[in-house]
Amino acid sequence: MLTHEDVWKGIDRLAEMHGMSPSGLARKAGLDPTTFNKSKRKTKEGKARWPSTESLAKILQATGSSMAEFVALIEDRRGSRGFGALQRLKAIRLSEVGAGGNFDAAGFPIGERWEEIEFPQIDDPQAYILELDRDLAPPVYRAGDLVVISPNSSVRRNDRVLVHLKSGELVVGLLERRTAARVVLRDPIATERETIFDIEALSWLSRIVWVSQ
Question: Which of 156, 160, 164, 204 could be 208's S-S partner, Cβ–Cβ 3.0 to 4.6 Å?
Fold first, then answer.
């Protein structure tokens, strides 16, 4: 059973995992910066005040986290970097991706350039890590970050995605919509800004499930 303390602990840890304070997390999710302040966690009479389901949904969306990941934080099922037991994931540096021959037509890792990194358990056994040795979309995706990609995950609107263009370029963004003819991404920072790609220009599109900063 989840307790009042558990839920607030999960929010604090989610903020920590993304290099933010609870106030910064609230701001990123479009909430009042004081939403998660410790002073807001109890009423003046000392009664427990719970965060709303709407605010929880917003911070999960803002960080690209699932409810299962949030519960894992509450239960403290974390390894040295994040959630659960460690596994070995394939990893490649961003600067090496352009060399070609690293992904198949569906976006799964192939070839000999991949190394392995121990990382907390990911539901997708074919998930892999993109090591950013240069900025990709600062300040959200910066040099030094580990971006975990799940090629088996279904992709829905507002998910963070990595798009590989046939030109070899990698693009990150928030999926706005996908049709038989085009894909529309929103900028991860200026979310009102959209970029449209013809389907013919894409090699593949995969969901970003975690960013370790």
Answer: 160
